[in-house]
């Protein structure tokens, strides 16, 4: 009892010392140390204080706005982001009469192909959208980046560090300093600049906003928000008579026979309060009787219906006396009976008790959850790997994806009704995820095109575009004359038929050396770094093994420019010997095509693949083999990580734009100008509206 009281006192003291920041530790630095009561108590206090100081804030804001003297040309700007919406598919469906609202908007306003980022990847492109700068100035070049000491992949957008100081108390390690979660995206997003001028923004699920940054507005983080286990999304799958083991993107565990059914355990996060940092677990029973199936957890019983998702279920893992970690999951009983199979989504952070900061203000996620119920918080919430690994089938994956879409749609229209002035920007992910996983149904040249699944879901992508048209129609119905709408995507989409393992190519060409004559497994396990000059990691390109930067670097700085040029020349025009097609249309020297203080963190060679090609699955994480080219037989059959010239996004607007060209980085300065603010000189993007056009907009 004394130990428990001491722990609670220490935890409370740790929280008070850390105000006003969110108090959290593990996974990788993440457990919430506050119970739900304290979260709600603080939310109530914050709301009460907000009411008390509102008159003072209002006067300060009024004086500052008057002093600045800016006169916005519009009342509201709404940015409807549809990740991956492709201009050629949009044109096709508009011509076929399946997107009448988009067709009307393109005629009354504008429709342009939107030049994407180099490389053409969502974290890179959306960072350009937010900041108005090229990747050399915002520091995001891929999902992954190499740790220069270990050569192992780390997340490119976020760095998480454990607390520097802990108090040792028996088997527990209590933090007495704050952990840090650092956003590695550089440069300021346009909503921060707007906020500095007292212009409010709602920023909902725009990628690369984790952890959220303080500004005058409200934000819900998106891409790269981890699950409770610290991964970017790890599902769990149980089945009878399983040998157990890992799936890519998930874990398979064995169901053991018990009285009345099966038993097993549910793997949770690492306990960073414990000296041994053991995995937290919840035991369960899966019971089957004549009435159906039931999942029995320590503190709840869940009725299961075969092949139907449960509602969101709250899981609580006990980390220490009086301290529990909360997460959200959905279960699906895939099979009942003697060959039972059970699926669980990745453990999402609980928006009512988030283990890491996922919104700004901190209680905003709780507010949304109280308003609409629990929702997916994982950055990449749709479980594409469970589909790739055939744990989920197409029907189950689509149901999950559309359920998450409906959660976000509710948030969007709520925010639209609350944003009377300023900016509302939201990004929907379903457009991207369904095209990634169902392009095999659309492309006759894909090796899986004639599979039974592809035949059954021929219209899956078409339905995405039809649904987007309905979303647009409902959005337009809520806009006024003084509102301006942009509908945009970060890139387009193409088929992914063939993989190219750049590490295998580098090995064959002598740029990468392996200790094993057969090559290397993932994570460069057999690579001889003392003789390797270049290596590939992630989806965007090739890094040089530079002396003084990489731990075992061998390339002198004086040799770097020549080596970059040599690699670009050899890769540009590289052909697939099996098909005879050009696999790489252009290899870009990062130092020639990007600019800014962070170019040194980019892959030195950015590879622009041709339509149908992409970095292969094995090479992405550092595997090396005799096989440079391979057939893509996964459900993930569409992609955009190719030459940016081949995958532009879309830009629709409710006003006519006289320009014929637009880059995704142009949106930030355009939005600033609409609110009578000059874009900072460092921005690469340019306003899409001239001064005369702005005056016309203001007259509407």
Main sheet record: 9 strands, mixed
Give the strand order, joined by hyphens, for the main sheet.
25-12-11-26-3-27-36-4-37
Indicate the overall shape: globular
Q: Count the helices. How many?
A: 19
The third-level CATH topology of the largest domain is Alkaline Phosphatase, subunit A
- How much beta, percentage-wise? 25-35%
Task: Give the full name of the CATH homologous superfamily of the largest domain.
Answer: Alkaline Phosphatase, subunit A
Percent of residues in helices comes to 25-40%
Q: State the total count of DSSP E strands.
A: 37
CATH-level-2 architecture of the largest domain: 3-Layer(aba) Sandwich
Which spans have pLDDT < 50 for at least 5 consecutive residues?
1-43
Q: From the alpha carbons, calculate the radius of gyration and give it in angstroms.
A: 26 Å
- Head-to-tail CA distance between termini: 69 Å
Average pLDDT over all residues = 91
Determine and state the CATH class of the largest domain.
Alpha Beta
Q: List the domain count as a whole number.
A: 3
Label the structural class. Answer: alpha+beta
Structure description:
- Helix 11 (430-438) packs antiparallel against helix 13 (460-476).
- The protein is 29% helix and 26% strand.
- With 700 residues, it is an alpha+beta fold.
- It has 19 helices and 37 strands.
- It has three domains: 2-67, no CATH class; 74-140 and 185-224 and 379-493 and 647-700, Alkaline Phosphatase, subunit A (3-Layer(aba) Sandwich); 496-644, no CATH class.
- Strand 15 and strand 16 form a beta hairpin.
């Amino acid at each position: 009892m004394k130990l428990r009281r001491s722990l609670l006192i220490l935890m409370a003291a740790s929280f008070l010392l850390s105000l006003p920041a969110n108090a959290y530790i593990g996974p990788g630095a993440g457990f919430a140390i506050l119970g739900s009561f304290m979260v709600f108590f603080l939310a109530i206090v914050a709301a009460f204080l907000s009411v008390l100081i509102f008159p003072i804030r209002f006067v300060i804001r009024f004086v500052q706005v008057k002093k600045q003297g800016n006169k916005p040309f519009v009342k509201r700007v709404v940015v409807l982001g549809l990740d991956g919406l492709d201009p050629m598919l949009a044109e096709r469906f508009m011509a076929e009469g399946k997107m009448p609202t988009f067709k009307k908007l393109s005629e009354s306003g504008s429709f342009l192909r939107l030049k994407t980022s180099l490389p053409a990847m969502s974290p890179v492109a959306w960072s350009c959208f937010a900041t108005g700068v090229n990747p050399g100035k915002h520091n995001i070049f891929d999902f992954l980046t190499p740790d220069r000491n270990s050569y192992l992949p780390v997340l490119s957008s976020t760095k998480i560090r454990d607390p520097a100081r802990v108090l040792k108390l028996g088997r527990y390690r209590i933090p007495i300093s704050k952990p840090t979660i650092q956003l590695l995206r550089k440069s300021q997003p346009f909503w921060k600049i707007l906020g500095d001028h007292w212009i409010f923004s709602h920023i909902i699920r725009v990628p690369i906003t984790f952890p959220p940054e303080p500004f005058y507005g409200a934000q819900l983080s998106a891409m790269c928000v981890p699950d409770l286990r610290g991964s970017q999304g790890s599902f769990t799958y149980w089945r009878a008579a399983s040998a157990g083991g890992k799936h890519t993107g998930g874990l398979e565990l064995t169901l053991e026979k018990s009285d009345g059914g099966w038993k097993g355990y549910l793997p949770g996060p690492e306990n960073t309060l414990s000296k041994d940092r053991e995995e937290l677990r919840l035991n369960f029973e899966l019971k089957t009787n004549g009435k159906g199936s039931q999942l029995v957890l320590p503190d709840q019983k869940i009725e299961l219906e075969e092949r139907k998702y449960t509602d969101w279920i709250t899981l609580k893992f006990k980390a220490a006396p009086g301290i529990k970690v909360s997460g959200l999951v959905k279960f699906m009983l895939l099979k009942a009976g003697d060959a039972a199979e059970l699926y669980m989504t990745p453990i999402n952070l609980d928006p009512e008790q988030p283990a890491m900061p996922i919104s700004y203000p901190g209680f905003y996620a709780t507010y949304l959850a109280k308003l609409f119920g629990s929702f997916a918080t994982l950055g990449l919430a749709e479980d594409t790997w469970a589909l790739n690994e055939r744990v989920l089938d197409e029907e189950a994956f689509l149901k999950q994806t559309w359920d998450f879409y409906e959660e976000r749609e509710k948030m969007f229209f709520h925010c639209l009704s609350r944003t009377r002035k300023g900016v509302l920007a939201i990004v929907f992910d379903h457009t991207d995820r369904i095209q990634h996983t169902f392009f095999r149904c659309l492309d006759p040249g894909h090796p899986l095109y004639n599979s039974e699944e592809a035949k059954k879901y021929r219209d899956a992508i078409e339905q995405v575009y039809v649904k987007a048209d309905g979303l647009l129609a409902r959005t337009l119905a809520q806009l006024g004359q003084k509102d301006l709408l942009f509908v945009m995507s970060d890139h387009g989409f193409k088929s992914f038929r063939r993989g190219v393992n750049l590490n295998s190519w580098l090995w064959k060409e002598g740029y990468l050396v392996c200790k094993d004559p057969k090559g290397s497994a993932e994570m460069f396990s057999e690579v001889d770094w003392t003789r390797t000059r270049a290596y590939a990691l992630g989806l965007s390109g090739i890094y040089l093994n530079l002396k003084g930067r990489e731990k075992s670097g061998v390339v002198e700085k004086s040799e770097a420019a020549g080596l970059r040029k040599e690699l670009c020349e050899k890769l540009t025009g590289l052909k697939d010997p099996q098909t005879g097609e050009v696999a790489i249309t252009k290899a870009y020297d990062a130092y020639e095509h990007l600019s800014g203080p962070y170019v040194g963190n980019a892959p030195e060679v950015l590879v622009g693949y041709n339509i149908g090609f992409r970095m292969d699955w094995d090479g992405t994480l550092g595997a090396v083999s005799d096989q440079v080219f391979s057939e893509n037989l996964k459900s993930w059959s569409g992609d955009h990580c190719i030459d940016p010239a081949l995958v532009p996004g879309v830009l629709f607007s409710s006003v006519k734009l006289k320009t014929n060209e637009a880059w995704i980085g142009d949106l930030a300065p355009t939005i600033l100008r609409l609110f009578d603010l000059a874009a900072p000189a460092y921005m690469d993007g340019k306003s899409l509206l001239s001064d005369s056009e702005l005056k016309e907009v203001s007259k509407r």
